[in-house]
Amino acid sequence: MVKHIIIALMTITVVNCGSGLALAHGSFELPLAGLTPSNFFYFLDRLGETLREIFAFSPEAKVKLQLSFAAERVAELELELETNGVEAKGLEIARNRLAEHIVRGNEIIHAEIVKGSDMEMISEDFDHDLKELLQRAEEGSDDLTAEIEKMEELLMIEDEGQK
């Protein structure tokens, strides 16, 4: 039984490792959404991401992972909107998780800066890629633009609450 669980977890990890952010030569492609928040088995997607986070050791790898997770959340938002419309149950979950990944990426960078690490290039890359991701998302559809704006409002409210 334990052997089957370990094999299943390894399979989930391998499958999830393939869904990454594709940035090349100025073009941008979203990863496949995979399971969406409205899917009963969405917890498997989250489990796979948690395992990937556990095995990301360097700050750069952790930040890149948060960016790839953010890209997957945008793909999930896009797919939820296409298949279930603006009343989809999973939109709020995907939007909140997108905000969490952005916050987490910035927290990792900030923590390393406090430790005295040089994170300037990683921070610039994260900001640039995140900006490109959100711009790409806003070009998708008016509904997706509205979801991104809601996520940005959520981030502003959280930021004001921390001050």
Topology:
Layout: H1 2-17, E1 22-24, E2 27-29, H2 42-54, H3 59-84, H4 90-114, H5 120-140, H6 142-162
Antiparallel strand pairs: 1-2
Helix pairs in contact: 1-2, 3-4, 3-5, 3-6, 4-5, 4-6, 5-6
Describe the structure in brief.
The protein has 163 residues and is mainly α. Helix content is 75%, strand content 4%. Strand 1 and strand 2 (27-29) form a beta hairpin.
Describe the protein:
This protein is mainly alpha-helical and 163 residues long. The protein contains six helices and two strands; from the N terminus they run H-E-E-H-H-H-H-H. A two-stranded antiparallel ribbon has the order 1-2. The termini are far apart. 32% of the residues are buried. The model is unreliable at 4-27 (pLDDT under 50).
The arrangement of helices and strands along the chain is: HEEHHHHH
Number of helices: 6
Provide the structure class: mainly alpha
Q: Spans with pLDDT under 50 lasting ≥5 residues?
A: 4-27
> Biggest sheet: strands side by side, in what order?
1-2
The span between the termini is 49 Å
Radius of gyration: 16 Å
Give the mean pLDDT.
Answer: 79
Instruction: Please give the share of residues in helix.
Output: over 70%
Q: Strand content of the residues, in percent?
A: under 5%
Major sheet size, sense and barrel closure: 2 strands, antiparallel
Principal-axes geometry comes out as globular
Number of strands: 2
